[in-house]
Design brief:
The protein is an all-beta fold. The chain contains no helices and 18 strands. Strand 4 and strand 5 form a beta hairpin.
Amino acid sequence: MKAKKIFIPLLAVSLFTVTSCSRDNDDTPSSNNSNNNTQTKEVTLDTTDKTKWKYFSFETGTEVTVTDPKKSLEWDIAFTSYYVKLNGGESGNGQGEAINTNSKDYASVNQAPATGYTKDLKGTMEIGYPPKPQEGTYSSIVSGGFGNTTGYLNISPSNQGVWPSVYAPNQWVYILKTAKGKFVKFQVNHYYNDRGKAGYPKFKYQVSSCLLYTSDAADEE
C-alpha cells in the first residue's frame, strides 16, 4: 500500500497545498511564462503617502496603477497607512478574501482550509496620528492597528526598543485569494526602510494555482 498523489478539483477537497503544478496537469504554468509566481518572492512597498492606496498584483509581482479599483481585476492587494484591502467583497469585483493561519512559521504553512475566509467590509478607518476617521473598505483580517495582535501590524509604545519605533509586524502567515481566484501564502515580516523609517511593509508571498491531494489508495499492480 503506497500513498498516491493525485490532482483533483478545488470543491472536492478541504485542503490545498501551496506548490508548483505537476507537469501532467493541464493548468501547468509554462517555464517561459513570466507570471509564474510559484516560488516565494519578497517585496517592499513605500506606503508612506497616507492619502492614497498602493496597489500590488501577485500575478505580475509588481505595483500597479488602478483607475477604478472597484471594477479592475489587475490588482490583488493594496496598502494605505496600516490598512490593507483585497480585491473582493466591498473593495472590488474580484475573488479576494483572507484567512489567518495562526502560524508565524512561513515554511511550515503548506496547506490551507477551503472554507473560513473573510471578504473585505465597509467601515471607519483611523488614518494617521492622531487618528483621523475616514470611511472606506478594508480587510478586517489583514489590516493592523493600535494594539492589534491579529492583523499584520501592531502599533504600541511597548514595541520601541525591539523595533525602530512603535510599529511591529505581527508576522502572521495568511492565505489570501487573488482577484482571479488563485491562492497566496503571505507574510509581512518588516515595516521599516534601511534608515528606520516606518511605512515600508516588506512581505513575502507564494502563489499557487494547483491543488495537491494525497490519497491512501493502493497502487494497482
